[in-house]
Backbone:
């Protein structure tokens, strides 16, 4: 399938999604949102891959929201001239937030490989990924405050769970850039690389390591980590018991041990496809 804003390659159970509008600084335009949503839905439902790497092209990972998202044909109109118009802002924002919720909730881990600027909506996107790698010249910027607004697509909700809250306040209030070395020291990124090629290669290597593990156990780990992030320890441990009782598969343990004894790579079942209820081929009788 051909996309206007992305290229998607799936090889050896690893998906590599590349933002490919460098001349537009990979800004988040209306078609970008539609294509991202469609791609994520495919990865979620068809389960053709076990890990996803997101990288980009050109000068910046992304320069953030494109101005033509608001007001242009196919975009979003935020009408603050009336009470009714303002009442529509919340559900419209929720609709946009769902794209990054969808990214966070994928059944497969997501690795963001970030170079250059990760600005505005790009920070929202990066925060919804599981793992972030960066080049030494990369930086993060909560750009919204610099254009007179509050970030509203997830940065202010997810970033305080990734780095110290005081730093989030600093970045959100000043619009300063957070350079990659400081992001590494704070734990926002897992590693920093001198070149983009080295970073993407490391991201794909990590994705292949993940893809070699049992997908259902990877999914369970992701669920447990996210739940523990948002709940107390006692609740998270209780949830872990319920989760493990649902995904426990002795055959995976046997396969891991057998493969090790035989000196080969283990072979695990893929996650089965999901079938959307609303797309089910059901006819009234």
Residues:
């Amino acid at each position: 399938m051909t996309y206007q804003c992305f290229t998607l390659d799936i090889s050896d159970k690893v998906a590599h999604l590349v933002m490919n509008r460098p001349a537009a600084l990979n800004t988040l335009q209306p078609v970008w949102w539609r294509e991202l949503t469609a791609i994520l839905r495919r990865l979620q439902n068809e389960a053709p891959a076990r890990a996803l790497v997101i990288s980009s092209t050109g000068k910046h990972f992304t320069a953030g929201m494109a101005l033509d998202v608001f007001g242009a044909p196919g975009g979003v109109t935020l009408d603050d001239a009336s009470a009714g118009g303002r009442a529509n802002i919340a559900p419209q924002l929720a609709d946009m937030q769902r794209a990054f919720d969808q990214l966070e909730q994928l059944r497969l881990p997501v690795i963001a490989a970030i170079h250059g600027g990760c600005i505005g909506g790009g920070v929202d996107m990066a925060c919804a990924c599981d793992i972030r790698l960066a080049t030494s010249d990369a930086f993060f910027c909560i750009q919204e405050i610099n254009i007179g607004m509050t970030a509203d697509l997830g940065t202010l909700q997810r970033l305080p769970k990734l780095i110290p809250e005081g730093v989030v306040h600093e970045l959100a209030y000043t619009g300063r850039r957070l350079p990659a070395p400081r992001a590494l020291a704070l734990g926002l990124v897992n590693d920093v690389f001198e070149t983009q090629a080295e970073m993407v290669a490391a991201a794909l290597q990590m994705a292949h390591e993940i893809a070699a593990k049992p997908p259902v156990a990877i999914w369970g780990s992701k669920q447990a980590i996210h739940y523990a992030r948002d709940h107390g320890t006692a609740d998270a441990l209780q949830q872990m018991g319920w989760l493990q009782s649902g995904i426990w598969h002795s055959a995976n343990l046997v396969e891991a041990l057998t493969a090790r004894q035989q000196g080969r790579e283990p072979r695990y079942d893929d996650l089965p496809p999901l079938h959307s209820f609303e797309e089910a081929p059901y006819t009234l009788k």
